[in-house]
């Protein structure tokens, strides 16, 4: 039985057979010819001599007119050929011969094209360094081509072979050969030992070029958490990826130094460069720490620090004749607000003075010498950096080599006299006041300042040292410095339970409406006034705000409400980091301030009794003209959307921006003309998708618009910064006075009376923090010292009788009075105190190597060395834990150290 015909189209169906008179179908051979067999000439001759059946003869004309097996067979047996055979070969119509010739020609052309395009049979392109792979591929390809030609001849010579089987055999040969080439290449590559061995990663696989680049960046920036730009994303690698959080500020708050690695070459430049096959070049472009990160203007101040985190540099020298005692100089900087504070002081072995300044400043970053810091100072710093109740960590950076004084002075002088800084310096710098004050600094302060300049230059914010009118000294003759244990014992900034501001004196008094006002109020609370005139002016201003119903005061409150953090915004303008949206917010806020009041000829025309309030309101209308000029220079709507190239009302002021716009328009016109040529005969138009220009086209203007924007920020810094900063400072004062007046009105506080003597009289005083949380009235207490009465009191009573609350109330009333606030009492008369010293509670300090009794005796000793005739001293449970005899001995010995008439 004949096999069934295959329904799939086969190669022979493209070539029509010779017409025959018989309609009987040709049967397939039982055993198809193997196209992959290597038959020699003898086998072909035997195949040619065998006479096939007459009805299965098929004539195929080759383009080369080479006689095939059928032709040779007809020539050899031409004498006894049958008429049927002759009619089959001769009586072919002319049209059939022409069609067969054309089909044969197409067949040969297809075969030649298949053999010419050998990309299907070649292995993948090898690397330039491995030339042997290419030679191997060429040899293998030539072998394949020869085999294809042999198989093609076999197909022409014997049409009885199944074309589908031949095609499958052919593809099998191709795939087999390709795998062989890959195996040989892999074998040869492994045997070549000329290349350096690849670096193997932890997974056992070799590093890729990108991974090697990342590894080198990590090695060069150890201790820095790197964000690396890869394509359009930033990625973290290695241990950095494990520690990464979505919010950068949380990383900074935990003490990390975060670096940003950007691609420093574009794809277009990469394509035409010599290293186009290498990874993109990436370098460290931005570096941040908690103290040096200048956050955006609307960022919230941290509740623990109540202000942007400061940065402190410390330089220490041992005293020659006093073992354990040292001289310390510090520089404290808040880059976000531009505040700079310095101090130079002596400290004892217990480092009480250093602890006081650390508690006041609460830095988030310390810059210390790697060598030369005493053991006592190191213990104090370690205790302070580890004492935190939140996730915040204090970062410590070390100075490898401290500059000597001569080199430090040269570096500082060069920094302040450099011409490139003259454009961004403050008014005091331009007038020479700042440089004169820097020259008068102690030597250690100059050394610390030089180290700070060098360190902050790495972050691009060294100009923070130029933007202040003058540096402020930490300790002055006009302020009282509260010791660290006083701040803690009286719960001035935070409570002793969970370390937050809840239940602290700061929370009770802070009713400010602005962030810069809240920061100033915190400074007031920690540094009470000892200057009588300044204190009296502040107290009078609070009284007038509490009692007056003036429309000007109401307008001042409405003006303060909703203001952004202008101090932080001005610093961002100074650093060139302000965004167009932030700039629009700042300018609109200053316009609101300038339009709040009409102009006044003199401060007295404002109409208040307080000179402080008159000065504040008198200065506000002066902003109107300069702010109007700045706002008229930009389009607020475009600035809010961040479109730097479209925000200018007068773009002619920036020639580069105009030239870029002209070039862009010219390019669009040329592209439109080119489109007409290319679109001839096609229905093509040039338009913007969705009515918008794609983001990449906006980059044409980016460079020039960025340059124009930087010039505008620089112009504000040069011409308006001093005036704007003075306005912010005065508004902060007004906000603090308004807050104290509101607290006095809401809590029924009274104005204190100050006397020339050193007496103290409190009538029905109340504890401000306890009163604010109690639902029942606080039981008032009265106390009088001086005025012919003893100047000391001993408070006794049962446990939980209120002894500690009473002595704390006395200290808090004195402190509140000397910051200018009204006080919680029926009446208060007091002289000015130069210090408030406390020794309260009982706790050890094992981190600093001190037991409970040692802590008590150390604090008491410090009080004895510090107290004066105008000091308020609070001692609570002195000698706790000892016997009754020992406690009485301590109480008797303390006043004998200093006469009762002196304390």
TrEMBL record:
UniProt entry keywords in alphabetical sequence: ATP-binding, DNA damage, DNA repair, DNA-binding, Nucleotide-binding
Biased composition (Basic and acidic residues): 114-131, 142-163
Gene3D superfamilies recorded: 1.10.1420.10, DNA repair protein MutS, domain I (3.40.1170.10), MutS, connector domain (3.30.420.110), P-loop containing nucleotide triphosphate hydrolases (3.40.50.300)
Gene Ontology MF terms: ATP binding; ATP-dependent DNA damage sensor activity; mismatched DNA binding
Segments passing through the bilayer: none
InterPro entries from the UniProt entry: DNA_mismatch_repair_MutS-lik_N, DNA_mismatch_repair_MutS_C, DNA_mismatch_repair_MutS_core, DNA_mismatch_repair_MutS_N, DNA_mismatch_repair_MutS_sf, MutS, MutS_con_dom_sf, P-loop_NTPase
Protein name listed in UniProt: MutS protein homolog 3
Species per Swiss-Prot/TrEMBL record: Agaricus bisporus var. burnettii (strain JB137-S8 / ATCC MYA-4627 / FGSC 10392) (White button mushroom)
